[in-house]
Amino acid sequence: MTAKVSGAIEYARQHGARFLDELFEMLRIPSVGADPAFAADTRRNAEWLAAHLAALGLDKACVMETAGHPVVYGEWLGAGPDKPTVLIYGHYDVVPAVMEDGWDTPPFEPVVKDGKIYARGATDDKGQLFIHVKALEAYLKTSGGAPVNVKILLEGEEEVSSPNLVPWIREHQDLIQADVCVISDSSMRVVEEPAITHSLRGMTYLEVEVQGPREDLHSGFWGGATHNPALALVEILAKLYNADGTIAVPGFYDDVVPLTDAERAMLAKVSLTEEQFMAATGVPAVWGDANYTIRERVSARPTLDINGLWSGYAGPGPKTIIPVRAGCKISSRLVGNQDAHKIYELIKKAIEAATPPTVKVEVRLITTGKPALIPFDLPEMQAASRAYARGWGYAPLFTRGGGSIPIVAELADLLKIPVVMMGYGLDTDGLHSPNEHYRIDMFHRGIETAIVYLDELAQLPA
Amino acid sequence: MTAKVSGAIEYARQHGARFLDELFEMLRIPSVGADPAFAADTRRNAEWLAAHLAALGLDKACVMETAGHPVVYGEWLGAGPDKPTVLIYGHYDVVPAVMEDGWDTPPFEPVVKDGKIYARGATDDKGQLFIHVKALEAYLKTSGGAPVNVKILLEGEEEVSSPNLVPWIREHQDLIQADVCVISDSSMRVVEEPAITHSLRGMTYLEVEVQGPREDLHSGFWGGATHNPALALVEILAKLYNADGTIAVPGFYDDVVPLTDAERAMLAKVSLTEEQFMAATGVPAVWGDANYTIRERVSARPTLDINGLWSGYAGPGPKTIIPVRAGCKISSRLVGNQDAHKIYELIKKAIEAATPPTVKVEVRLITTGKPALIPFDLPEMQAASRAYARGWGYAPLFTRGGGSIPIVAELADLLKIPVVMMGYGLDTDGLHSPNEHYRIDMFHRGIETAIVYLDELAQLPA
Q1: pLDDT per residue over A369-384, tens digit each?
Q2: Higher pLDDT, B375 or B156
Q3: Among partner residues B225, B288, B331, which is closest to A224 by beta-carbon distance?
Q4: Which residues of chain A does B307 touch, with a Cβ-Cβ cutoff of 8 Å?
Q5: Mind listing the pLDDT tens digit for each residue in B287-334?
Q6: A367–B95: do the CB atoms touch at under 8 Å?
Q7: Which structural domains are found in chain A, ordered by start?
Q8: Hey, which residues does A72 pair with through a beta bridge?
Q9: Distance between CA atoms of residues B207 and B306, nearest Å
Q10: A305-312 and B305-312 beta bridge pairing
């Protein structure tokens, strides 16, 4: 370990208590981006961060406007043009939190209990984004600079799917261009098994509506010669799936990059048994494509889920109608190299082909998100692996996340750089839930890993 | 025409406007019997009717308790023991109605447009039951009495299949015993072709709920290995039907009495072409068992309809969940000799057999009703035919109704009397639909026919 690195780590250890105080200050700002009632607080969080970055000596530290909540930017390019540049992405907005949801303590008054910080945003993502800020501070305050150039980009709309960030990035591509992007907004199963997420699923979300008669009909007068729209929808939806749980939409799997043996071996390292799955979800039995393990099904394979279904009467007692229409929401989780818009067209075509002349159907696209797949043999990924081994104390696994963070694929595609997802949270931190928390030791361990990662990046061949 | 009859008709014509005002008063009471939120209004409707009957001079006019919504009773027995007694049955409860369903005007604020009354209950059944009340009033206010004895029985649970009326009838059989029962709760195709319904379909109404996980799941973290309950429900429901529109529940058709050639010839008298069906309902094409005519399918054949369907998120935009559960309401219209409880067991068994071990299913019986068949050569039926010819102006057809009024079979069975269904509505009145309406001229014409029918009954040999 170089003196530069050990000096920064030493500094981080000495100043750990202050780092926590600062994090608490930010956690007290209720930056609930989705709720207009908290718009001023959300902006206040952005201003707090920009001021913090400026105070650390970063250049261009400022709040930058978007069509929604602002972006915070700051950079330190003192390593010089011969050294790589790392773009650190994080988000300062949080999901809503009120006591009534079941919090034991007020969500925006952080408290420490059993070595954990309880507060909304503690792990998602204020605690994790702050790790990088403090790692950079540790370098700047000891050896006078980091081993690589650092650009920090923090947004305020991640929890509402970053609607204004892509336009902002297109406008500021030169400003934020880098060699690698690192994001800490994910989690690991246990401390001893840190995880680098190298894949996220994309998404195609659509709505289907079937209409039969022009209004609800009396099922006695018209039943028997009217194709019930709820039945028609049921028949259409049933045709989108095969009996074995696979998806019957023609062409659906065409662009799926097959899992390699190495990837399957990597996925197998994170156990997810039938018993674990049933205990976690409460389902009476596990389901899905038997050609893949449970872990593969929920992370490396595409899905087609019905998220909502509606037709006719759902109140108490009987109502004997043939409903005028029936509808559903459907979302498909995508994997590399599936294209969200192409998948939408395939599903739409399959639905229209399955629709009989006795009803009319309308298919509407709601939203899309690109899947992300970052090969884990890239030097920047392997550097992250070494950083965990050195800074965290345990070598990481490369995992696939089943969820979707569309901005990951957007960053990778727009900047044409690898995005390294170094999660410093635990799967059990309760993000988006009441009593979200973050372990203090993981905060400190994360700072040391982030310090080491910048050093590892500096040693990569240009 | 006797002076008694023509006097009553003259009175009805003179007081027609007031009759309508009174009907409007009742239509303003939202007596949605199925919805507990409207329990007080439903009772208020019963009290309004009892007060109305008392004011007309009926004896024993009162609200009588049942285990559910009350019964309204009143009688006039002034014709004496040598004259027959007619029991008039109707119902003051209505099916749910809210603007969001597509009403052009508030469902409980009756308005007149193009000679039609728009309001929930206008044709089903407040407008039709009121015809008999006003026919009796016309006699009482002119010649001092009706040609036959009249008992009026109005219930508040017809739209939920009269769960408490049969026990009430058993307890009050002496009170309501009569020689014939007349019910106006049905309809005709066109004014020139009035109809006496001599057959009704029965009903089995059930609810199905499928549960998978213990709560909504994140579709990204768990999608691919969780059997989506909405999909499971879709798959189960799809298995209940054959591709040709027939019902795939094993044993479902076993007890259906085949239609004779004579019955098919009778049914063929009331034309129902593909074009007429499409125009009346708005469906893009007619559906169903091609072995039967459209008229047969909607009146003389059993059905299985999905009346409601629900699961997960139905609000705006996306929500990426695997819903905890999915449910539906299903009703089956039955014909002789299908037994409603046996059919329930068959459907339940088919659903359970179609349910995979990946989800749990619960099937609940909501209500049942017997099918009814009244021979049309009975004197009371022929008297009704003459009443239409004299009072309405057109001789009627004897038809099969596709709907269900389970109490018809119960009244016929318990009191051992013919039940004569003299409908005064139009097939296109939109009962149970948004913008239910009733033609004002049919209301007045109905009153005159009802006046004549009492006279026809008086002339039947004892």
Answers
A1: 999 999 989 999 999 9
A2: B156
A3: B288
A4: 219, 230, 312-313, 318-323
A5: 999 999 999 999 999 999 999 999 999 988 888 899 999 999 999 999
A6: no
A7: 3-200+371-458 (3.40.630.10), 202-256+302-369 (3.30.70.360)
A8: A63, A154
A9: 10
A10: antiparallel
